[in-house]
Amino acid sequence: MPPHQGLVHAQEYDWRDSNVALINSDLDHKVKHQSAATEPAWNNGVIGAEPGLYIWRIEDFEVVPWPKEKYGCFHEGDSYMVLFSEKVKSRTEGSAEEEREKLVHDIFFWLGTHTSQDEAGTAAYKTVELDEFLNGAATQHRELQSAPSDAFSALFPRLKILRGGVRSGFTHVETNEEPQHIDTLLRIFKHPSASAGRDAILVHEVEPTWRSLDEDDVFVLDKGDKIFVWQGRKCSPMEKLKAAQVVNDMTLAKHVDVEVLLQVEARSKIFVDYLGGEDVNPLETTFKAQRPVSAASERKVKKLFRLSDAEGELSFDLVREGNGIGKGDLDDNDVFLLDAGKSIWVWEGRGASRAEKAMWLKVMQQYVAQQEDAAALSIAKVSEGNEGRGFWAAVGA
Question: What is the pTM of this model?
Answer without folding.
Answer: 0.77
